[in-house]
Design a protein that fits this description.
This protein is α/β, with parallel strands linked by helices. Helix content is 43%, strand content 18%. The protein is built from eleven helices and eight strands. The chain has helices spanning 16-29, 44-48, 60-64, 92-98, 107-112, 132-140, 152-171, 191-204, 217-225, 229-232, 237-252, and strands at 3-7, 34-38, 75-76, 82-85, 121-125, 143-149, 177-186, 208-214. Helix 1 (16-29) crosses helix 11.
């Protein structure tokens, strides 16, 4: 059975999609069969893998509302072991269309059930909000990965997310575990970054990944080229960090 890891944060700009794309690529480079699920209506993970959204016939929206099977939606990427369930702006409509359904928080869980035997890792890029789509990502997950940008307001957002997760775990997903909190956009030359990292260690010590993602121009520029950073420069600091994170994930799930 494949492991489902949802990458969640109600705060935007914390490196969530960057992590989803580059961690997926690093796991695929380790010859693991990986499916990246873009559950954000902005579709940035889809663009980050170089997929032209205007040419898609169907997206994850059609899957979770019940209008398409996975085989109609899954898209190839430029990495052999990495596939994608893409998203477009129409995914916004799913919130309204699913609201009256009794299984509204479990639509993604049920949709992915048939895929867990095919993929070793299924990574879900959730939207930056506490929305029905995010609740679906949490309900479907075995593990959560929570990015923490090295910035003051992001620290409070992680504490709030953990409280929400505890409620949803009791209500919807008792098997759920937090894989870890990932420090992102770290600049050791900035005192504020050092202070946030120290505060994070004090508050979440046993939950922090050893890997820290640096503030890095290669990571910032990779989405514009529609490629994970490792395809641009496998030796860059960003690539090395996501390979290290992938190793931590591989150890976590075995």
């Amino acid at each position: 059975m494949g492991v489902v890891i949802s990458i969640v944060s109600q705060k935007g700009g914390v490196g969530k999609t960057t992590t989803a794309v580059n961690l997926s690529a690093a796991l695929a480079a380790a010859e693991k069969e990986v499916l990246l699920v873009d559950l954000d209506p902005q579709g940035n993970a889809t663009s980050g893998l170089g997929i032209d959204k205007t040419k898609l016939k169907k997206s994850i929206y059609h899957g979770i509302i019940g209008d398409a099977d996975p085989c109609e939606i899954i898209t190839e990427s430029s990495i052999e072991c990495l596939k994608l369930l893409p998203a477009r702006m129409e995914l916004f409509r799913a919130e309204l269309e699913l609201m009256s359904r009794p299984d509204k928080e479990k639509r993604l869980l049920n949709f992915l059930a048939h895929l867990r035997g095919t993929y070793e890792y299924i990574l879900v890029d959730a939207p930056p909000s506490l929305s029905l789509l995010t609740f679906n990502a949490i309900t479907a997950a075995d593990f959560l990965l929570i990015p923490l940008q090295c910035e003051f307001y992001a620290l409070g957002a992680v504490s709030q997310m953990i409280q929400v997760v505890q409620v949803l775990k009791r209500r919807l997903n008792p098997r759920l575990r937090i894989a870890g909190i990932l420090l992102t956009m770290f600049n050791p030359k900035e005192d504020s970054c050092l202070q946030i990292a120290e505060s994070a260690r004090e508050q979440f010590s046993n939950m922090l990944f050893k890997t820290i993602i640096p503030e890095n121009s290669d990571l910032k520029n990779a989405p514009a080229h529609g490629e994970p950073v490792l395809l641009q420069d496998i030796r860059s600091p960003g690539s090395r960090c996501y390979f290290n994170l992938a190793e931590e994930i591989l150890n976590l799930s075995h």
